[in-house]
Amino acid sequence: MVTLRKQYVVDRSVYSEDSFAEKYDKVYRLRKTILDHLKEYLTCDSKRAKNAVLSLLPIIGWMRIYRVKEWLLGDVVSGISTGLVAIMQGLAFSLLAALPPSYGLYTAFFPMLTYFFLGTSRHISIGSFPVLSLMVGAVVTRLVPENGPAANITGFEGLTPDQQRVVVASSVTFLMGIFQLGMGVLQVGFIVVYLSDTLVSGFTTAAAIHILVSQLKFVFGLQVPGISGPLAVIYTLEKVFVQITSTNICDLVMSILIMLAVYVVKELNDIYKAKLSVPIPIEVITTVIACGASYGFNFEKRFGVEIVGKMVSGYESPIAPNMEIFQESAVEAFPIAIVGFAVAFSVAKVYSIKHDYTIDGNQELIAFGVSNIFGASFRSFAASTALSRTAVQESSGGKTQIAGLISAMMAMIVTVALGFLLEPLPRSVLGALVIVNLKGMLMQFREIPYLWRRDKPDCVVWVLTCLGATLLGLDLGLAVGLGVELLTVVFRTQFPRCSVLANITGTDLYRDRKDYLQIFEPNGVTIFRIPSPIFFANIEFFKDKLIEAVGFNPLRVLRKRNKAHRKIKKLLQKKNDDVTENGMKDLFTQTTDESGMNMEELPVDIRVPKVDLHSLILDFSAVTFLDISALKGLKMALRDFIRIDVDVYIVACDVYILEKLHSCMFFDDEILTSMFFPTLHDAMLHVLEKHEEGTSKGRAVIHTQL
């Protein structure tokens, strides 16, 4: 590839920050106070009221541009396709939440009704998500264990275990919705940025392991109680393998056949997705076949297969959340709220970029908060989105959330009229469908070698998040992942890769001296760069690296010079009482004493340390802030160099850092504002001119060839 080399020539004076400020007037802006921002926020007019309504009800925005002839058919087809998948996933994921399967259909219906009006994404499919279902199931299992008495909670009296579990799941979901709604109202949608893609990948992989292990009891047809808490995966595997000889062969064979069939057809869907207008609904097909076989051959009686059983027909009356469950589950509900929003927002962002529209993180929090509160009132459990279901909605022609509304209607039809047809469905089939849909999350293990080669700290975040969430549980694992992620940020800023720069010959560019051969390094000049903020945690590291770069410790040199100074002063005063302080200074900075005494005549135990450095340039172009501790440490370091006659220059310093230096009384008789230069090349030309190694003209001309 041929690189075009253009040339430019700049003819201007060399500027320091002081001379630049003298020549060019700066506009001083009046910054708004907190009170001004508050007044502006609370001020209301017709335009703001209109924007507020459009922001709160995004449906108005996309309904005004809805193209009925072009989009309606695609939305209908997409809604039917997505509805079939949502029904199957709702039934399957309800097992993860330790709830009767029919309540998974509630989650496919109620949350979508409110998201339709409040959500900003036009493509995500709202409903159950396996990770959230599992996290809710952990709370349900803890408060209403399969073996043993339920927790002592007012409101459990007179309820069956299944009803108690529904109360727990809906209360946790209600509290989750309150957290999401509160964060949306407080405009803290930015919180999702602290969950990096690496952390989410490791976390969801660990969740996939939990889900896989939890479904083994259905695949093998075993009676294994639900276990939650640290090491739950290990304890569950132990109980599965203890009972492995009691495996129900019919369940196992059905599960294997279902997983093979679904896996193969899904792969074919991916291969021929360009030719298929709608993906083959293999989950629905296998479910219908399994239902028919189970009913026709009476699997429950003949082979002891556990089936879905009685489906709730229609919808039950709303219920209020239980306050005691709020107290018991607040610690778990908050990470559920964060994970649910983070996953949904990530998926929504992918499709908003693809289809060129914007989504609002804070409005999404409000939408999911209201949706989960509304759904929990009607006994649904935590709702978010699933990538596979959203992919079906988008790829089958869905343009807006009308497709999502139609999919919710599909779930309603099954709940109200067709639920009895699913009663003979073996639970092992649902378990197999859950496991085969984990392929995408489990394949994330392939990221480990890539991360190790490209970014080792990110790889550490992935591995430790995955291990922590697998062994300690998803709630504690998320906390571990966040802690490790923040530690890597601290590590990167506390120990940045500092470098010594050199001029690239014939240009005004400066790069790491180790990386290039055609460089120019004037004698006695060192250019030091730190590519991070300087704050209390890395100021000592900065000073150590600076000493390493120049090759000596200025404070130690200063102390030795002062000691030698005192000894020489005494010696000279013995030889010549007329020696003055100025004469002493001349003697200290020169090799030979002009008063007649040669340094060779000094006693051998007197050494005057000399340094080869006369100018130190600090490149602050990547320094974004300085705190008070760093400011004090920087001032001490600069003063040490200045006191041993090394000129110090700071270049490319951010204007706000300069303002802070002024406000914090950083400058004094030793540290002057004239030390600061707008660019590195300005400082270098100033140094060369001062030490007569560059041009002797008072005005420097920069000739740059690129």
From TrEMBL:
Q: CDD domains in the record, alphabetically?
A: STAS_SulP_like_sulfate_transporter (cd07042)
Q: Name one Pfam family in it.
A: STAS
Could you give one GO CC term from the UniProt record?
A: membrane
Its subcellular locations are: Membrane
Q: What is this protein called?
A: Solute carrier family 26 member 3
The cross-references to PANTHER family, in alphabetical order and at most eight, read: SULFATE TRANSPORTER (PTHR11814)
Keyword terms, alphabetized: Membrane, Transmembrane, Transmembrane helix
Where, by residue number, does the polypeptide cross the bilayer?
Answer: 72-97, 103-119, 126-145, 165-192, 199-220, 240-264, 276-297, 333-353, 365-382, 402-422, 460-487
Q: Tell me where it mainly resides.
A: membrane
Family annotation (NCBIfam families): sulP
**Gene3D superfamilies in alphabetical order:** STAS domain (3.30.750.24)
- Provide the membrane topology annotation: Multi-pass membrane protein
Annotated organism of origin: Sciaenops ocellatus (Red drum)
Q: InterPro entries in the record, alphabetically?
A: S04_transporter_CS, SLC26A/SulP_dom, SLC26A/SulP_fam, STAS_dom, STAS_dom_sf
* GO function terms (MF aspect): secondary active sulfate transmembrane transporter activity
List each copy of the STAS domain by range.
Answer: 515-687
